[in-house]
Amino acid sequence: MAWTPPETQHFKLNYDAATFIEDNKAGLGVVLRNSEGHPIASLTQQIPLPATVIEVEALAARRAMELALELSLDNIVLEGDNESLFKALKSRDKSLTQYGHLIKDILFLSSHFSEFTVSFARRQCNKMAHSLARKAKSLPFMTVWMDVVPLDLVSILQADLTSLP
């Protein structure tokens, strides 16, 4: 099982979150790739620890959407490894959960794209975003890399690319 690229002329936004309970912090990780699997941008951001894991995941998804908008991209596939969040975004129903406002934000942001879909990926298919989320522990400020991923994570990107058909 490996990362899969989006269709031609589409971009895939993989996101993930990590919690650092001992520091009362969380990390957001985002990687934006084209249909050939090459990075357009990658991001890591440290934030205060929210109350629940799904809130951290929703914040990572929202940050991914904001990044795509900031880069004026279109035709987006938003992909993460939290099945509950995936189902909430896919249903597009109003959510009365404590993270419902984040779902609403993500869906509002999705209206700015010509095409928008959500996708679920198993953790092993989301390694790059997960590694970026973990990297936030050592980077207290949001960091964005354009057209690359951090040097210490290149091997993960290369593993994804070599698994492509």
Account of the 3D structure:
The chain is of the alpha/beta class. It has one domain: Nucleotidyltransferase, domain 5 (2-Layer Sandwich), CATH 3.30.420.10. The chain is built from five helices and six strands. The chain has helices at residues 53-70, 83-91, 100-110, 127-135, 154-162; strands at 11-20, 25-33, 39-48, 76-80, 116-120, 143-146. Strands 5-4-1-2-3-6 form a six-stranded mixed beta sheet. Helix 1 (53-70) packs parallel to helix 3. The chain is globular, with a radius of gyration of 15 Å. The two termini are 12 Å apart.
Secondary-structure map:
Elements: E1 11-20, E2 25-33, E3 39-48, H1 53-70, E4 76-80, H2 83-91, H3 100-110, E5 116-120, H4 127-135, E6 143-146, H5 154-162
Parallel strand pairs: 1-4, 4-5
Antiparallel strand pairs: 1-2, 2-3, 3-6
Helix pairs in contact: 1-3
The backbone outline, from C-alpha atoms, is globular
Helix content: 25-40%
Low-confidence stretches: none
Oligomeric state of shown chains: single chain
The neighbouring-strand order within the major sheet is: 5-4-1-2-3-6
**Given this structure, which CATH class is correct?**
Alpha Beta
The CATH topology: Nucleotidyltransferase, domain 5
Order of helices and strands: EEEHEHHEHEH
CATH homologous superfamily (4th level) name: Ribonuclease H-like superfamily/Ribonuclease H
Average pLDDT number: 93
Strand content: 25-35%
- What Rg is obtained from the alpha carbons, in whole angstroms? 15 Å
Instruction: Just name the CATH architecture.
Output: 2-Layer Sandwich
User: How many β-strands, per DSSP?
Assistant: 6
Biggest sheet overview: 6 strands, mixed
